[in-house]
Amino acid sequence: MKKNTLFLLLLSALMVGCSGPQSGGDVIGKEDDIARYPFEGVHDFDVKETEDYIVKNNVTDYKLLLPNAVDSYLTTAKEEFVALFKKATGITIDVVNETAAGMEHDALGKYISIGDTHMFSTSGLSFDKEALGTQAVRIQTKDKTVYLNGGDTHGCIYAVYDFLEALLHFDTYSYDCVYIDEVENLKFYEMNITDIPDIQIRANSWGFIKENPNNVATRLRTPFDFADYILAVADTEAGATRSAIHNSLDIIPRNAPTSRPTWFSDSGDQICYTAHGNPEDYQALVDRSAEIIEQGLVAFDPVNYPMKNIVTFTMEDNHDICKCESCTAKTKMYGEQSGNVIYFCNDLMAKIRAWMDDPINAKYNRPDFKLLFFAYNDYVNAPAHYDPELKKNVINHPDLVMRDDVGVYYAISSGINYQLSIYDKENQEGVVNYKKWCDVAPSTYLWTYNANFGGYLSHVNSTNFYNPDAYQFFASGHAKLLYNQGGWNTYNLTAFQMLAIYLDAKLSWNSNLDMNKLIDGWFEHMFLDAANDMKKLYEAENLYSLVLLERAGKFRGGIINVAVGNQEFWPQQMLMKWLSFIDDARAKVAVYEEVDPALFKTIKEHIDLEWVSPAYFLLSLYGKDYLSAEMYYEMANYFYYEILPLKFFLVSERSAPLSTWILTLLQ
Hints:
39% of the residues lie in helices and 14% in strands. By secondary structure, it is α/β, with parallel strands linked by helices. The strands form 4 sheets. A 7-stranded mixed sheet has the order 1-9-5-6-4-2-3, covered by helices on one side. A 7-stranded parallel sheet has the order 10-18-17-16-13-12-11. α12 links the parallel β16 and β17. The longest helix is centred in the last third of the chain and has 25 residues.
């Protein structure tokens, strides 16, 4: 029996807001025959207390040891350890760099060694770097020394965080909210830790986090944007600007003197990947595309840009794909329009690889270099089908067997409803398609969405979809990268967006964490005595966000891009009720204004950031016509004097800054 849709949404939202779905549990809307994809991961923390001490009575004999050669990541690891260790113990630990000759492991030595020190190489300990992956953590102890290592030096930063988490409960909730135990004594623990992120690369997407105040992006283990990993390319000779995504017409511009008419769709807004069936023009398209990417490989050489091991040839952000006779015939043969792109990318990457393998280009060779295309819009579906004998998905046509150095960037804009559980029957189309791509593509990269781009200030119930089930599902397909797009052009956060960022960072590293404990801990540390009142506001907004999208008629579908700026969607009494939760929260923390002014300022700002959403909708939609003059000017002044200095962001992805609206309030 099918239940009323809205009833299911409300029930689901209430469950998330109060007790929440846990991985492996029942999910609203789930069918009995829907396959689930659990993922265990490797997060092994073997930590045993000893009778020895790292710190005793506020004194330590330990030194921090680094290799003789230190890169930027090891420098960050050192700086983070020194700062956080001092915050916990009050001690500025001595830092020692090995001499060129190195330092031997000493059974009586007391060191915390970071990276590939000579001391580690003489300790008798070892680990398999390749098996770890670049960002994973390996921590071992020998005698009285702790060795912090990673898959590469990037992972050493996270080894510092794992060490401090295991011993001192370190965690980062926001740029201005970090917790670590403060102690006078810290025992030495025997440690054997292997901590591998479930998703290898977790690329941050929020403009505010990209600014990285107080190293928050690094501490959330999402220090880079996807573009940091991707070679930006374009035909600069034709005046195009190098781009990492939606770049096909930057690589092959329509106005370039080298371009041919057959290279473009009839509208001119996409590439024709078959060159309208002309073999000579097709080969010329492959050759010119390869030449432009090769120019990018020269401009961004491996020595100076070691992270840029990906290039994309990605469709433009529209639905005007080529439907010429040649493309139509090949689509029929391959079963999906994406087949034409795969065939082209195989030929393109073969040309690029031959260029890199030429000894004359040795200094530009990247052995692990990959070419990605977008599975997006009309190219979203994998040209594959399930083979019951092999018990996996297989490619539809032998022409489409993908090279090992060609991968798919799956931008899940359709087939997935980000307001429902990943295992809701409505999401089965996207689930099946993802599994197809994972089975037939040598490597899969993910682009997902986690904001209302039509109304940044309207809360989105992200935990209804982005819970452990979703992250385990993504990890089960061995996705190499997750770019969960939020407010990419925002420079402060509200509507509990920082919580969404925190959960995304934690669960994409370890998808088996208890989401509800993470949420409770976040509220406790962000709001202290006001945690319960702010949790009430969060649960109310969480619930109403689903109702809002249902009312707006945009609940079903992928990307949320809903303009919600009218009274119909924001009842005045509801907004007033939400603001009463804020008033209660402010009253609870008022005591800190006298006893700890700095702490009060921080907690007040956290509460103010959540005040903005209901206050904005109340003031902008009801204003002087519905509110008393006293209330209107009180709120307008608060926006001007308290919110304006916070460098707030856009009302929507394409709107003017919120500051523009604030400046009109007192006119």
